Structure formats: C-alpha cells, structure tokens
Amino acid sequence: MIRVCEPSLSDLEKKYVCEAIDKSWLSSIAPPVRLFEEAFAQRWGTKHAVAVNSGGSALFLALWALGIRDGDEVLMPAFTMIATAGAVTQCGATPVFVDSEPGTGNIDVSLIEDKITTRTKMILPVHIYGHPCDMDPILRLARDYGLFLVEDAAESHGALYKGKQVGGLGHAGCFSFYANKIVTSGEGGMIVTNDDNLAHRLRHTRAYDFDEERHFWHRRLAWNLRMSALEAAVGRAQLERLDELIAGRRRNAAFYTERLGDLAEPLETKDYATPICWMYGLLVRDLAERDGLMDHLAKNGVETRTFFLPMHQQPVYKSAESFPVAEDLGERGLYLPSSSHLSDEDRDTVIRHVREYLAPRR
Length: 362
Prior knowledge:
globular
C-alpha cells in the first residue's frame, strides 16, 4: 500500500531522541523543548514560539489567552478541519463560517466583512493544504474593526505570503506537528507570536499557571498542554530538515500536475503565494466519480483521502446556511499520496492507476 502520507524520518531524529534518553530528558522543562522553541522562533522570525501537545491545543490556547469567551464570535472558513471550529467552541465562543474562494479552498476575503457583528472578536483564517490565504485584506479588516487575528497554519510550515512566513503575520500563528504534517513530532503543536505579554500568558496557561512567587498556588484556570522532551527532540530534527521536506512535497505536486492536469483539476497557486503543497489535491467531476476513483485506487494499493467535510455539514455544527464553494470542494476533492519521501516509482504507480480510471471517462 502506498500510504496517503507518512512521516519522513532520518538518522537525525534518532540522534536527538537518543541524546534525550541518554540524558534522561523527558519532561516539558528539559532542554529539547527550549531548543525546539528557539529554533522555531528563529526560523519564523518571531520573538516567541511556545510548544504545546497538539495543533488543536495550540489553537485553543491562543484563543483562550487572547480572551475569547462566551458570547464572542470568531470568523473562520467553513472549509477546514474540525480542530479550527473546535478551538472556538472550547472557549465558549461561536464559530461564524465564511465560504471559500474557488481554486484554493481558502477563506473568501470578499465575504468576511459582511459577517462582522458587534460580537465579532477575531478572524481565524486557515492556510488550506499549505497554500497561504490572501492576508493583506484580512489584516486590514482586523485593524479597521479592532479584531484579533490568529492564523491556523497547521498545514503550512514554511509557506510564504508575499515572501513572509505564514503564521507570523497576525497576533499569533498556530502549527500542528501531527504525523502527516511537514514537520512532525508525532503529536504536538506550536504557537508563534511577537507579543511579549501574550507569550507569557501562553507559557503559564499551558502548564497549570503555577504562581511565580508561591508554588502550587493558582490564581487562574489553566491546563496541562505541554510538549514532552522526546516529542521536541523529533520536532527539532524535522525543523532542521524543513527545506528538504518541503522540496519533496513540491516534487510530488509538479509530478502529479504534469501528468494528471489533463484529467482532473488541481488546486490553484496564486501569485502572492509560495505554497508548500502539504497534500496534493485534485477536483474531479462529481461525488460519484471521486468515490469511484478512490475505490479503484484502494483496490490497487493506493491510499487517498477526501477533502474536508465543511463545518456546516458536520453533525456538531449542522446548519441550514449554504456555503456552495465549500460544499463543492467537499464533494469533488481528494488528495493523493503526498509523503516527502515518495519515490518516482511510487508516483508513477499512483498516476498509472488514476489514469486507468479517469481517462476512459474523459
């Protein structure tokens, strides 16, 4: 089976993990966590990077530390993974969905302003599948309306918007290190920010907010959202290999687009964007063709995934409101095997079986 996405590990990850074990560095206060945070902040050009135990925790913690609470509204795309909306709900706030732009699947910036109300406190754009959102108009709206802006960059390690790293453009940016991400630590996440006070709150709230003057004394509600040293050791090695890992994803994208562009519709790349091609996505004609293609590929040892099911179609967020672009993406989209270490032979196998199914139907 050619898996849809596997981590790409090397001797460097093994070296850093073995070093941590040899030195009994296991907890969140051990040096590997600090080293990973410092390296991440340096790569992103931000003052702070705060490691946590998952991408979902990164989103929740960022929103909570910025004061998102009951009665607040957070604008976010309908087309995303459940963690984005879940972080808003965890804070007691209401996610307000916005449709996607055709081509990239990112939030349609032309639709955001009409959704702003007196209860709106934040815009939460998601850089879908590693392609940056059009951030300048979103930043202007946040500034003009006095809103927080947090970037969900879970899928976009190293993507650039007009030459700038995504994740570091708003009040905070949140990353995931789940096993299929460009940078992985198995589980884990990171929040980047240039706000000293916010970074202080994030560090305390991720670790039960122990009082600085009196241990086991807690003035505020907080949680255990910490990253272990072993996870940080893996993440640090992955970060040092980031350019290599991105190059592998881009090779996949170029290979697939060249050989499948006549049969299916790849996602677009905008002029302002330098995407990382986290997952290579295709749009076929309709739901039946997508499901038929996925079944054909599975029978031939090729694993795929559907695109995200839009939030308003999820049982937990079910809504009668229509988001036609998000719905279309959810019905016609799938992504192909996208590991950074895929071989030419693997990609040729994928392409051969895709063409077997789609070419007779064109």
